[in-house]
Amino acid sequence: MILIVAEHTAGKLAKATLEMVTAARESGREGPITLLVLGQNVAAVATEAAAVADQVLVADLPQLATYNAEVWAAATTQIAQEGEAHTVIIGGSRSGREYAPRVAVKLDAAYLEDATRLSSNGAALQAQRYTYLARVTETVEADGLVVVTVKPGSFAPAAPAGAAGEQYDVDLTLPAPRVQVTGKSVEKSSRVALTEADVIVTGGRGVGSPENFAKYVEGLADSIGAGVGATRAVVDAGWRPYAEQVGQTGKTVQPKAYIALGVSGAVQHLSGMGKSKNIIAINKDAEAPIFKVADYGIVGDVNEIVPALIEASRK
Amino acid sequence: MNILTLVRQVPDAEARVKISGQSVDLDGATLVIDGMDEYGVEEALRLRESGAPVEQIIALAIGPKKVEDALRTSLAMGVDRAIHIETDEKFDAVTLSRAVAQVAQAENVTLILVGGQEADWDSQALGAASAERLGWPQLTWTNELKLDGDTLTGRHDVDDGNESFSATLPAVVTTQQGLNEPRYPTLPNIMKAKKKELRKDDPATYQLQGRVRTVNAEIQTRARLNKMIDGKDAQAAAQQLLELLRNEAKVIA
């Protein structure tokens, strides 16, 4: 069987789960597609999951109320072993890429990380992935039992299958978490999430100041209904929260339009947004590398052009 | 206690990447210590400087001969000694974690520091896989770390924000930006580093057998329109850009 660990938040199945179902369908691997739902009070999630899977295994346990790498790895491994899974698919989220390697070691399986495409070649599962700051696409393969993480946003969300899959409750023997969480700060935004936004407006140091960032980057984003992104330099300077960072060490995004304001275009930044459908750059410096990857570029002052853009977009 | 810092060598971010045959060819590229690992080296030194009872800080690298340069950089930063498992073969992170675990046990290590994400292969797996092999907990994407006795506390990023944590050694910590500002090796320290031990290990000792094969590699180029709009007249430029967004890109109404 193909085992997928469902991702969900606030009682709802995440889009990433539907993307993983598509990845499983396209993988060429045989056997029923099984979704594993780990958590507490997850009945609604399980019902949503049943619409796209052949079967759903539900572990509704108090020990699973909050994510922990060792607990998640133990749970996934037990189910994979009992169900004799040959393919385990885990989301390429921060947490997914944290516990998936532990599952691969526990199962003595090969590990294909952050796949953007999956296919079979005989007995081997082949995965495409981006390397070298997303400048190279490599195809890697492995035989036998394989654990795969799937890069968010790389597969279309799966449509419901014909009939809803059966749901089964499962019990698990879980280790006690050894890492204690002593505090948590959730970075919330009232705007559309970066990884789901059709349009993103990102600001770099060229915007000038935190005040200008609020006025121009957030102002433009709000006037056209876009998400807000930031470069590493802006986050390092403390102007914006890390949750907004786009790039190698931040989020990878591929919106329909990416509007870069005062962004120079360091390769680490390009690796996080270079797959966007349309790239629009506004920068004073005509030599900025961002213009090399832009579809539309304006050499000019953000302070003058953005207010004009906001004004014109309201008409 | 002994700390193991894992060090990789990667092409400089600005280096041009080329493909020969079916794989990436780094011949002639400038190679540097992976920035993410450098945070780990720096953090080990800072833990000792903050008064933690650190006996030895050992840097470990697995890779071809030239990886010695990255180990020399670590030694010049202040690491006590280095181990180089010299091999030209490219192993995946889960396979490499076998060697990491064996070295950690042989060297009586209780803390492993490693970069959270590799700048070349983009893998985040080495820390987690090594922790699993050793049966240790892990703290990933750490941007604040303190050690008191054998209790680690700090802060790290998670899916939806960040968490403060507490855990007991032994443990694996993966490092990232914000944790510290790595020091530059000074000339006297570079000279001193030349006398420090850099031990060569035979890869056969570790019986590594890779499970992942690279089939193909392609440079991704995507043709961009590169249409430039004159920004001297802000109103006209804004109007023109909006029309493009509405009619050509069709992303706004």
Q: Could you characterize what this model shows?
A:
The complex is a heterodimer of chains A (315) and B (253). In chain A, a hairpin with a 2-residue loop joins strand 8 and strand 9. Helix content of chain A is 28%, strand content 29%. Chain A has 315 residues and is of the alpha/beta class. Chain A has a 7-stranded parallel sheet, with helices on both faces. Chain A has a 5-stranded parallel sheet with strand order 15-14-16-17-18. Chain A is built from 8 helices and 18 strands. In chain A, helix 3 (69-82) crosses helix 4 (94-107). The mean pLDDT of chain A is 94. With 253 residues, chain B is α/β, with parallel strands linked by helices. In chain B, 28% of the residues lie in helices and 34% in strands. Chain B has 6 helices and 15 strands. A 9-stranded mixed sheet of chain B has the order 11-10-9-12-8-1-6-7-13, sandwiched between helices. Chain B has a two-stranded antiparallel ribbon with strand order 2-5. In chain B, helix 2 links the parallel strand 6 (56-63) and strand 7 (81-86). In chain B, helix 2 (68-77) packs across helix 5 and helix 3 packs across helix 4 (125-134). In chain B, 47% of the residues are buried. The mean pLDDT of chain B is 94. The chains are: A alpha/beta (315), B alpha/beta (253). Strand 10 (136-142) of chain A pairs antiparallel with strand 14 (213-219) of chain B.
